[in-house]
Amino acid sequence: MTYALSDFCRKLELTVPVVQAPMAGTSTPAMAAAVSNAGGLGSISVGAVGAAEADRMIDETRGLTDRPFNVNVFCHRPALANPEIEEAWLGRLAPLYRSFGAEPPPVLREIYTSFATDGAMLEVIVRQRPAVVSFHFGLPPAASIDALKANRAILLGTVTSLAEAKSAADVGVDVLVAQGYEAGGHRGVFDADAPDDRLGTLALVRTLVQQQTLPVVAAGGIMDGAGIAAALSLGSAAVQMGTAFIDCHESAADAGFRAALGGESAYHTTMTRVISGRPARCLANAFTRFGINVADDDVPDYPIAYDAGKSLNAAAKAAGDFGYGAQWAGQGAPLSRAMPAGELVRTLEFELRSSLPDSTP
Question: Where are the alpha helices (DSSP H) in 12-161?
Fold first, then answer.
C-alpha cells in the first residue's frame, strides 16, 4: 500500500521517511551515502572533529552519493573548567586505569569545540553547502543561522520539550527532531543541568504536532516499519533512527559494541553522565555500573569528562575489555539487525507498507 510523503520528504526527494541519526563516532560517510542512495536521508556528524576533518568527511560522502544528506553539529555551551573537580575525577578513575595497566592523564582537556564558537567549522559548512544541517545540544548564534539559510540549507534542530521547540522556531529552524527519553546517545537538552521532564517520543511528538506549526521528525525507540507507521500516525513528517543502524555493515561500531548490542546489555540501557559529562543513553556496561552511585556534580563538564572517558576506554580495550566504551544505544536496542544500511532502508520501507491499514505486502 502506498503512503503520502510529507512536504519535508518531498522537498528532499526522499522516498522513505527515514532520517539516519548522525551518531558521532558510529556513523560514517559510507553509511550516510548508502541511506541516501536507498531513498532515506543519511547523516554524518562533524561535532566530534575539527573543520579540516569535517571538510574531508563531507567530500567523501558527496563522492558516494549525489542525493541530499545531513551534516550534524554540536551546539553545546563551551565547557566550564573546574580543576578541582577534574583532579578529583581523575583520582576516582585512577584505580580503573591501573586495573588495565595504565595511568590516567595528568590533566583533562576540552576535546570538542562547540559550533556556537567555531568559525572555521561554519566556514567549511557554508562553503560545502550541504542540503541539510542539524543542531544538537542547542542552537547556534543568529549569524550562523543566517549564513546557513542564505545557502538554502534545511535546518533541523533536536528538541526534547515544547519550550525548546519554540526557541528553535524563533531562530529560524525549519524542522524539529523530537527526541524522546528512550532515544540512544546524548540527550539533546539545551541545558543539561536544568530539570528534564523526560518526555517519551509518543507524548513529545503529539505535543509538538498539536501545539506548534513546524514539521516534526520523531526520534527514540523506533526500530522497524511498524514503529515508523506509528510515528507517522501521530503526525510526524518522518522518523529519525540511530540504534537501528549501529550494527549495519558501514557502521564504525567496534566488535565489542556489536557484541553488547546483541547480548543481554541491550535490554538494560541506562542514562549516564559519567562517560562524557552530559546525560546519554548507553548499553549497560562496566562504565555505567561504575556511574550508578556517582553524583552529577562530581563529573567534570562536557566534553572535558569525555577526555577521561575516551582514554579509559582505550586503556580497557588495549587490555581486551570492551566494557568502558561509549556504547550509545536506545531502548529499542534488542530489535537491532545486522545488514547493509541500504538493505535496512529497503526493509524498513517494506515493513512500513506492510504495517499500514488494509495493506498488501
Answer: 29-37, 51-64, 83-99, 119-128, 142-150
